[in-house]
Amino acid sequence: QVQLVESGGGLVQAGGSLTLSCAASGSIFRVETMGWYRQAPGKQRDLVATITRGGYTVYADSVKGRFTVSRDNAKNTVYLQMNSLAPGDTAAYSCYADARDSTWRRYDYWGQGTQVTVSS
C-alpha cells in the first residue's frame, strides 16, 4: 500500500502565505507526477499544480504567479508554496501521486486532504 501524508494547512489572512507538504511512502518503486488539487464546498475538485519527476510544472491559471510547486525526489515529497492568498483559495487541498510499483505498473494515489482557510 501507498500512503500520502499531507501537512501545512490552516487559517491565514488574505495576503498571507502557507506552505503545504505531502510525503509518499509505502510500496513505491518510483513516483512519477505529483501535485495538488483543491475542492471548495459545493464545487468540483480542480487542479492546482502538478510537477513531473523531471521538474515540468503545470499550474491552474488562477494560481499562476502566486503558487509554486516543487518536489524532492529522494524523499518522495511534494511542496506547494502559496503566496498572496485570497478568500477564493479557501478549499480542501489534496495531494496526488502517480506512482509505479515493483512491476512497473502505475497507480494514482490521493491524500486525505488538508484544509486551507483564507479570511478577508
Task: Report what the structure shows.
The protein has no helices and eleven strands. The chain has strands spanning 2-7, 10-13, 18-26, 30-39, 46-51, 57-59, 67-72, 77-82, 91-100, 106-110, 114-119. The strands form two sheets. Strands 2, 4, 5, 6, 9, 10 and 11 form a seven-stranded mixed β-sheet that branches. Strands 1-3-8-7 form a four-stranded antiparallel β-sheet, with no helix packed on it.
Number of beta strands: 11
Spell the H/E element sequence: EEEEEEEEEEE
Would you tell me the overall average pLDDT? 96
Main sheet properties: 7 strands, mixed
- The end-to-end span amounts to 40 Å
Range of helix content: under 10%
* Rg, nearest Å: 14 Å
Structural class: mainly beta
Total number of helices: 0
Overall outline: elongated
| Spans where pLDDT lies below 50 across 5 or more residues | none
Show the helix and strand layout.
Blueprint: E1 2-7, E2 10-13, E3 18-26, E4 30-39, E5 46-51, E6 57-59, E7 67-72, E8 77-82, E9 91-100, E10 106-110, E11 114-119
Parallel strand pairs: 2-11
Antiparallel strand pairs: 1-3, 3-8, 4-5, 4-9, 5-6, 7-8, 9-10, 9-11
